[in-house]
Amino acid sequence: MSTAxxxxxxxxxxxxxxxxxxxxxxxxxxxxxxxxxxxxxxxALRVESIRTQVDVLMWVGIVLGLAFxxxxxxxxxxxxxxxxxxxxxxxxxxxxxxxLVLIAVLRAEQITARYQVSDATGxxxxxxxxxxxxxxxxxxxxxxxxxxxxxxxxxxxxxxxxFCAAETAPVLRERLTEAVLRAERTAADANPTAQPLTELAAxxxxxxxxxxxxxxxxxxxxxxxxETPKRPARKAPARRPAAKRGGxxxxxxxxxxxxxxxxxxxREPSGAELARxxxxxxxxxxxxxxxxxxxxxxxxxxxxxITPAAPTDTPxxxxxxxxxSTDRIEGEAA
Length: 334
Hints:
The chain is mainly alpha-helical. Among the domains are: 40-189, no CATH class; 237-301, no CATH class. The protein contains 13 helices and no strands. Helix 3 runs antiparallel to helix 7. It starts with 7 loop residues before the first helix and ends with a helix. Residues 1-20, 211-256, 299-334 are annotated as: Disordered. This is DUF2637 domain-containing protein. The chain crosses the membrane at residues 56-79, 85-106. Keywords: Membrane, Transmembrane, Transmembrane helix.
């Protein structure tokens, strides 16, 4: 009767193999999470989520504050009129009239602040402050006349809080936009050839996993079925930049010209890079990159399937792809 002997080192390695595999998987996941967490597109997504929360909370506070002042403004405008009389009913229109103009200005500032567009005329600030001043005076008039300190404090808090919220909201939106732009600039300075977000999902594995993957690929190479060699594809003519409209180059024209130059060199610009060239928001640059990527699928073909076109004496020569009829004619001539 024979007894199998197992070396101590082999027993230890076989028992800890599953733990090593889990550690390698955790290391690979941590590497991908670290690469994605600092990507400008991920940061922009998080900032947009925070921006939505800030806008919702600001608008809820502003609407509640304006609704609170409506009763006092109506009492100020009615001036002791009989209930349900025409002056009493018309007095309810005064506060909504001021509030709607104020909300319109704040809604416009919500967009202009996001794209960091300043008001050169100053009318936005004048209109907003006049509406706040009118609301505050009408809301606290009776308290000042009666010298009611408690009433002054009570009716001053909502208008002043609405004023502070309206002045702070555009500043917060500008800071959030600046955070996105600063993240893009930092990423571009650190790595000018940063990969798009879709390519980071297949990020490079740690050295230990790379060696295992290489060994597995080498072992599978011996049993792999040889593929039929493919006919070299003809190089498609490069796209030319869009013509200027009206003799003036737009930001989209600059971005498209940059796209054509970079794709012709074998590199695909990211949406953030196109946005920096055109001087627009990063989301617009990503939308352009997606559209142009679908318009020109040949610009992303692997380098192994593309062969340089034969030199010709005529500039801008266009190579005609081979067809089956051309192959038959060549065979008959042979």
